[in-house]
């Protein structure tokens, strides 16, 4: 049996298993039948990170592509990302030839604290004393004027009216 066909069968079986295992898991996301994301840690956890695993055509005989380039990971230092990816690649080498996406996600979950131990926790500090220069005193509780919200019908009428005005102006220009 050709290698690509065997790989595709392995991928189909792994895809079914992943869908079954992670059904209802908010941390798991299937981007495509060959690309998956898993959030390690809860939302709001400063040490949470996102791993993306994509399968090349010959996976699992060849290594999957593992990425941490998601926007979610922007606060993580590149050194920490590189360290996590290096550790995951050791797991990839150990599991080459077998379905490993679940294994990689679970390995990352089990080692989250170790992976992120050197990542500084970004805390948001707010400045309570703000100074404004050259602005008039405006009461803090004054509400801004809200822009009037139009209904769909009102928007259609406005669009139709605008369209009619444009057509009339064009007709007048042609008559001159």
From TrEMBL:
<dbReference type="InterPro" id="IPR042770">
    <property type="entry name" value="RWDD4"/>
</dbReference>
<protein>
    <recommendedName>
        <fullName>RWD domain-containing protein</fullName>
    </recommendedName>
</protein>
<dbReference type="InterPro" id="IPR016135">
    <property type="entry name" value="UBQ-conjugating_enzyme/RWD"/>
</dbReference>
<feature type="domain" description="RWD">
    <location>
        <begin position="13"/>
        <end position="115"/>
    </location>
</feature>
<dbReference type="InterPro" id="IPR006575">
    <property type="entry name" value="RWD_dom"/>
</dbReference>
<feature type="region of interest" description="Disordered">
    <location>
        <begin position="135"/>
        <end position="156"/>
    </location>
</feature>
<dbReference type="Pfam" id="PF05773">
    <property type="entry name" value="RWD"/>
</dbReference>
<feature type="compositionally biased region" description="Basic and acidic residues">
    <location>
        <begin position="140"/>
        <end position="150"/>
    </location>
</feature>
